[in-house]
Amino acid sequence: MTRRPLVAGNWKMNGLAASLPELMAISGGYSAALKAKADFLICPPATLIREASVQVAGTGVLIGGQDCHGKASGAHTGDISAEMLKDVGASYVIVGHSERRADHGESDALVRAKAEAGLRVGLVIIVCVGERKEQREAGKAVAVVREQLAGSIPDAATAATLVVAYEPVWAIGTGLTPTKADVADMHKAIRETLSQRFGAEGQNTRILYGGSVKPENARDLIIQPDVDGALIGGASLQAKDFLGIASTYI
Ligand code: PEP
Fold it and tell me: Which residue from 41, 77, 82, 79 is spatially nearest to 62, judged by alpha carbons?
């Protein structure tokens, strides 16, 4: 089976109602040629998911959340459940982003509980993994990522419900990127890990690269055998840049 690339934007804590025209510019640029080659997903802040879902209806652009709680409901002030994301039109949810692992002390076990919540309601989960700079320098990048994969991905995940995003922490928002060979090596290691655990489902699971992807470096970073798309932060805020990256596929 061929894995259909996914071009995903993570708007992080950026975006007001006034930002929705940028989303419309992205959906307006999702041409027939792009639709033939790749899926488009935008994960705006939770406050915009409902309106974003309404606005992209019928365009093929998918909408996702950036995080969810592990429980369906309850006394968890400020948190948002997977059920709530689904209710306002999300079909994907990112879990275990390194900013959440760092800012909120999220462990692999917690990320897994969130991923299980996403699966429970029928969301596709994007599980983020990636090493810190000192871990790479110590030669531990692959071991760190393997441990995150083992601890963060639920047993029930399938190729249809799981996407893995490899995001080296030191490359996020910094303009720094790994070499083409480093990306290839890590994605190969992730593929092997997924295949050992999930068999054919692991072979068919999409693995995204994320970390300072821009139109200028996209070809080198994402046109590789085990790279099935990109998770894009800063460059997803401008339709021109997001579409420039996606056009690598046509
Ligand atoms: C991200 O946060 O998922 C990300 C990849 O950010 P950036 O593209 O800005 O490095």
Answer: 41
